[in-house]
């Protein structure tokens, strides 16, 4: 009967969690030994409840289904196919789907070629860690604001006990549905060295780098306007408002990401952290835009005058986090060497965790005046009629402190409790400084 | 495993129940609540003194009137003065030769016949205008070659129909009244239109500008004189008497040298305050406006009824004016004794005397206003917050360069702070209502925030009795019911007067401290009949416990038509 078991669809509606691959395999297995075929199916369900206390702008306390998915995999010899699907809001949504071919070499290393739609290798360690194994209710905010999610592409990964080199070529829009332009190109890689790599203890240090040429955008005044948006929620899924920490960067041309990571664990303790840096260059067809202004008496006169009044510059952002956990009782912490991540709780266990996160989406020129009534920076230290365009970006900077307690009933079911304090600095929201939130999660993954 | 799942389910359900119960009293963004809890910068004591130069519940005749007469002309302002308005309001721009004049729009097309007279080109009379300047012996002052070169520069600098492209003498050839008759058939009066447009004529072989003979584009000096009870000096044919000549400091220069030497205005008495070099005036023409010591440009208005209103001029957006207009205004006020910084009025001079408006003889005689950040900044550099200043608010989507883009309590508090920090004592929000249907920027929470800041609230612009009722709180709590959450600050107690229909004190909130009105007659009637004017015992909203006395204000509002008739229109 085993091979005919179909799992019920647990998730009728699901919110899309940020991108990640599952680092645990679907549980229900169907083997066809004659064909050397193995099919697995699993599911995941997460429901959160949250209570928020804010200084000024309210957040919506309540409960929500954070994630509901069905996931499947198929193994055939050295080939591996994986797909998972979300059903958030009753709508089908594409999650991971990829095909991987892997081969072990004579020295114990694994070579894998992977194609499809899955997490960018350089998208951060956090976003390459499954949310179901994460030890916190939400990933660190910096990883969501500055890291990248799933992309369509191909990659090659080499992995052995000591090293992992994982790099690929991707594109930014998996359906090629951008209004104008093409869907961009991304080259990304993540590299890890593990000076300590035993079953009970791992020390891994790594770096990642990513280059993106932004390709898609909208047409405005006959000019392709490419915009990228950065942002994070307040490390929660119940109110996913990104207004507190977010930035929109029009005329984005190229993006360079660089990051460093470290992870250590032993049986009872883990610590990990990342530093993230993002550099966004800008480009614009100024001449065409200038020409478009020349249809009125109030023309700028010269292209150079227009450009001086509409300056462009590259922007830089950075952030990072440190997380730690202590296992009060339960199975020891384990490392997933294939993905370069820490595994989740397995079996009955109780842990206490803590995190500090910093996300910096402010890139503000010194001495500029900010008007909250206009959400506008002014370069000369005072408001002006024109030209007033500043190159500053005030997306917000947040420091977040989280304490959490996670209890796992068994390898499938877990409850989590997090308290987080955020301290926000955002010019546009001068009255929003302190945020307190208590969140609980019930999750089931198999 | 089943047992564990059961436990997990119980714990989860319990947790969700607890948090779901929290969401029943879900909070949401509420402007009314936020307005009460947000911090608003309070005006300083020093600024409050200047604020108190302004009479409470001031009736500001918006452009004189847009309803009864051609706006910002002699007819509109004389009418407003005789009607009993407290202020004559205007919009200031500057001409090519640096004359400060009144014009609301970005260009002169709507309110003059400039397109008929000059088309969209540099006036064809321009070269003759230069030829009209003569030496003492009658010879032409500027050479033909010099004129030709200057004409080429004029072509290069020209922006059609913009004030800054024309000499003031040229603009006196325009008819600023005919458009009103064309657009307002019910309100038209033949005398508003000129009988003759201006033109270039030859007098004894000398090219001479002959002005039109109707309503003119008004200079700031004109506006001041109407407030002083004067009118234009006109010749027998109805043309204003205003001569012009080359200023002494330019009399030995060619036009090329004048163009090169064009210098920004310098503040009277303080040479360190001057405009930027971007001010491209041909500032060599001196008109016979005169000054406080005498003038041939104005005569006593024989039908002046003794009201002495103040003036309420607006600095327009910075791209309409060279960057020294604020200094020019300072100096003109100085010339006419209307600059209270250099010539303060008698302390505590009453706003009303024996049934006449007397604001023009007090330290509140001039209120400045602007939407422009640049003008606000520059006016602060020049006037130092020592003359009452109103910062005007407007909103549109997408936001215009000077608009408030986020009309929220946070955005409002931000603009209030910036305005205060740059010398403003008054906020001027737009109000809704026909016929203009402006965006509503004076909701109760907004009026509350302005009051909380200690600044005056002068909304614009009123056209109906319904608007007066709305913003004077007639509909809210007038009968002791329907209290609002802002009553603690906005409530006033009004004692009955001989002119009120109510006979017992009435307490209710009000949402303004003065108003721009196109219908002074409606607004004044309302204020008198509802106890806000001609009342010796008005509770002072900015000085709790003190009374405000405007009992000497005119208690009779003349018939608007009759006033125009009496003025000769």
Give an account of the 3D structure.
Helices cover 4% and strands 54% of the residues of chain A. Chain A has 3 helices and 26 strands. By secondary structure, chain A is mainly beta. The model of chain A is unreliable at 1-21 (pLDDT under 50). In chain A, the strands form 5 sheets. A 16-stranded antiparallel β-barrel of chain A has the order 2-3-4-5-6-7-8-10-11-16-17-18-21-24-25-26. A 3-stranded antiparallel β-sheet of chain A has the order 9-12-13, with no helix packed on it. Chain A has a two-stranded antiparallel sheet with strand order 14-15. Chain A has helices at residues 141-146, 286-292, 303-309, and strands spanning 28-32, 37-54, 62-76, 79-86, 93-104, 110-119, 150-159, 163-171, 180-181, 185-197, 202-213, 216-220, 223-225, 227-232, 245-250, 252-265, 269-282, 315-329, 335-336, 341-342, 349-363, 369-371, 376-378, 393-408, 413-425, 434-445. In chain A, a hairpin with a 2-residue loop joins β12 (216-220) and β13. Chain A has a single domain, classed as Porin (Beta Barrel). With 569 residues, chain B is of the alpha/beta class. Chain B has a single domain (41-566), classed as Phosphatidylinositol (PI) phosphodiesterase (TIM Barrel), CATH 3.20.20.190. Chain B contains 19 helices and 21 strands. In chain B, the strands form 7 sheets. In chain B, strands 1, 2, 3, 10, 13, 14, 15, 16 and 19 form a 9-stranded mixed β-sheet that branches. A two-stranded antiparallel ribbon of chain B has the order 4-5. In chain B, α2 (31-37) packs parallel to α15 (444-453). The N and C termini of chain B lie far apart (98 Å). Mean pLDDT of chain B is 92; it is low at 18-26. Chain A binds chain B through residues 47, 49-51, 56-58, 60-63, 297-298, 348, 371-376, 382-386, 388, 409-410, 412-415, 429-431, 440, 442, 444, and chain B through 1, 4-5, 7-9, 11-12, 15-16, 18-20, 22-23, 26-29, 34, 37-39, 159-160, 162, 317-319, 372-374, 376-377, 399, 401-406, 410-415, 418, 422.
């Amino acid at each position: 009967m085993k091979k005919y078991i179909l799992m019920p669809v647990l998730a009728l509606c699901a919110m899309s969690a940020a991108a990640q691959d599952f680092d645990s395999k679907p549980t229900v297995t169907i083997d066809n030994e004659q064909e050397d075929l193995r099919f697995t199916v699993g599911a995941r369900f997460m429901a959160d409840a949250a209570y928020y206390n804010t200084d000024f702008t309210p957040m919506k306390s309540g409960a929500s289904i954070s994630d509901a998915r069905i996931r499947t995999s198929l193994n055939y010899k050295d080939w591996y196919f994986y797909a998972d699907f979300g059903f958030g809001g009753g709508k089908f949504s594409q999650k991971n789907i990829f095909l991987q071919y892997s081969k072990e070499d004579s020295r114990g290393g694994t070579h894998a070629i992977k194609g499809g739609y899955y997490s960018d290798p350089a998208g951060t360690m956090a976003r390459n860690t499954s949310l179901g194994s994460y030890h916190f209710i939400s990933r660190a905010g910096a990883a969501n604001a500055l890291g990248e999610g799933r992309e369509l592409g191909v990659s090659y990964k080499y992995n052995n006990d000591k090293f992992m080199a994982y790099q690929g070529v991707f594109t930014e829009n998996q359906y090629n549905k951008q209004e104008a332009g093409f869907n961009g190109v991304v080259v990304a890689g993540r590299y890890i060295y593990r000076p300590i790599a035993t079953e009970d203890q791992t020390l891994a240090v790594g770096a990642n780098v990513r280059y993106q040429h932004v390709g898609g955008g909208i047409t405005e005044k006959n000019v392709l306007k490419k915009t990228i948006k950065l942002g994070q929620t307040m490390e929660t899924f119940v109110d996913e408002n990104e207004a507190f920490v977010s930035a929109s960067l029009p005329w984005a041309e190229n993006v360079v990401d660089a990051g460093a990571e470290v992870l250590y664990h032993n049986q009872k303790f883990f610590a990990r952290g990342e530093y993230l840096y993002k550099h966004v260059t800008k480009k614009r067809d100024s001449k065409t835009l200038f020409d478009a202004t020349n249809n009125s008496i109030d023309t700028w006169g010269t292209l150079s005058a227009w450009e001086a009044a509409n300056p462009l510059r590259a922007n830089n952002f950075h952030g990072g986090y440190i997380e730690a956990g202590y296992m009060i009782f339960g199975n020891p912490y384990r490392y997933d060497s294939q993905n370069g991540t820490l595994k989740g709780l397995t079996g009955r266990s109780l842990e206490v965790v803590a995190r500090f996160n910093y996300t910096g989406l402010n890139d503000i020129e010194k001495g500029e005046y900010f008007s909250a009534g206009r959400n506008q920076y002014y370069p000369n230290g005072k408001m002006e009629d024109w030209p007033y365009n500043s190159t500053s970006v005030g997306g917000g900077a947040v420091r977040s402190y989280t304490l959490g307690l996670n209890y796992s009933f068994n390898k499938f079911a877990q409850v989590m409790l997090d308290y987080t304090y955020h301290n926000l600095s955002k010019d546009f929201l001068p009255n929003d400084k302190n945020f307190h939130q208590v969140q609980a999660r019930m999750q089931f993954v198999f | 495993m089943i047992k564990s799942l059961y436990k997990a389910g119980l714990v989860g359900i319990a947790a969700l129940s607890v948090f779901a119960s929290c969401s029943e009293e879900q909070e949401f963004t509420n402007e009314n609540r936020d307005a009460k809890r947000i911090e608003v910068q309070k005006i300083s004591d020093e600024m409050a003194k200047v604020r108190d130069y302004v009479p409470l519940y001031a009736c500001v005749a918006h452009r004189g009137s847009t309803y009864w007469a051609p706006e910002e002309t002699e007819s509109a302002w004389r009418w407003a003065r005789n009607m009993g308005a407290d202020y004559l309001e205007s919009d200031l721009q500057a001409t090519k030769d640096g004359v400060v004049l009144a014009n609301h729009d970005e260009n002169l097309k709507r309110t003059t016949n400039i397109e008929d007279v000059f088309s969209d080109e540099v006036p064809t009379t321009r070269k003759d205008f230069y030829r009209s300047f003569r030496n003492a012996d009658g010879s032409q002052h500027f050479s033909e070659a010099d004129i030709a070169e200057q004409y080429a520069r004029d072509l290069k600098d020209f922006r059609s129909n913009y004030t800054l492209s024309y000499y003031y003498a040229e603009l006196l050839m325009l008819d600023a009244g005919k458009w009103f008759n064309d657009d307002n058939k019910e309100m038209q009066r033949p005398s508003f239109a000129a009988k003759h447009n201006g033109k270039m004529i030859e007098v004894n072989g000398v090219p001479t500008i002959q002005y039109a003979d109707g309503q003119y584009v008004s200079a700031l000096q004109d506006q001041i004189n109407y407030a002083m009870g004067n009118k234009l000096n006109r010749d027998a044919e109805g043309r204003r008497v205003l001569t012009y000549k080359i200023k002494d400091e330019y009399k030995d220069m060619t036009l090329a040298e004048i163009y090169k030497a064009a210098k920004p205005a310098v503040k009277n008495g303080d040479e360190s305050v001057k405009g930027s070099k971007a001010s491209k005036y041909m500032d060599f023409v001196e008109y016979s406006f005169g000054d406080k010591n005498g003038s041939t440009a104005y005569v006593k208005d024989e039908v002046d009824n003794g009201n002495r209103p103040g003036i309420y001029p607006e600095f327009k957006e910075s791209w309409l004016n060279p960057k020294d207009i604020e200094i020019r205004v300072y100096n003109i006020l100085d010339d006419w004794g209307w600059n209270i910084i250099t010539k303060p009025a008698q302390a505590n001079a009453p706003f009303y005397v024996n049934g006449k408006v007397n604001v023009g003889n007090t330290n509140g005689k001039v209120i400045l206003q602007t939407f422009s950040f640049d003008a606000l900044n520059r006016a602060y550099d020049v006037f130092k917050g020592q003359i009452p200043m109103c910062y005007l608010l407007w909103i549109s989507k997408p936001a215009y360069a000077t608009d408030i883009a986020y009309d929220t309590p946070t955005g409002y508090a931000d603009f209030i702070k910036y305005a205060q920090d740059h010398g403003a004592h008054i906020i001027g929000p737009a109000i809704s209502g026909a016929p203009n249907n402006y965006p509503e920027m004076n909701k109760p929470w907004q009026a509350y925030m302005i009051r909380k800041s200690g600044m005056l609230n002068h909304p614009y612009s009123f056209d109906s009795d319904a608007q007066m009722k709305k913003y004077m709180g007639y509909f809210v709590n007038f009968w002791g019911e329907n209290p609002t959450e802002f009553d603690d600050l906005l409530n006033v107690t009004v004692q009955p007067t001989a002119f009120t229909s109510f006979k017992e004190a009435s307490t209710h909130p009000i949402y303004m401290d003065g108003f721009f009105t196109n219908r002074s007659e409606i607004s004044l009637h309302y204020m008198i009949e509802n106890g806000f004017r001609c009342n010796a015992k008005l509770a002072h909203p900015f000085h709790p416990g003190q009374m405000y006395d405007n009992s000497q204000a005119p208690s009779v509002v003349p018939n608007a038509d009759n006033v125009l008739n009496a003025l000769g229109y």
